[in-house]
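Researcher: If convenient, please comment on what follows.
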Amino acid sequence: MSLNLIDTHVHLDDDRLRGEVEAVVQRAEEAGVKRMICIATTAASAQRGIEYSERYPSVYASVGIHPNNAVEAHESDWEKVLDMVMTPKVVALGETGIHLVDDRHRGMAGGFCCHGIPSVQAG
């Protein structure tokens, strides 16, 4: 029996994978992973995820800003995320939410709300 697995949370843009992404994607496909969703943590990582989705047929992207990065995000970062929402292989908005593990959550509510606007606009 062949499995059709979907990995819903990959970070192909992680610096530790630099130069290894093609091999990582190939190994995942060989192991039965049919689709991967590259999760964004910043506007820049969302752009890299889109680039990977354009390069590899099995890779899709999310766009968004991770709660731990929301405090440092500039208004222009949110605008970039909004511009990327309708990119063909973007299938999710986020990584989003409010992490309550430490004091970094204090600035996250604004980021959480900023993800809601493009999700409504994208339909």
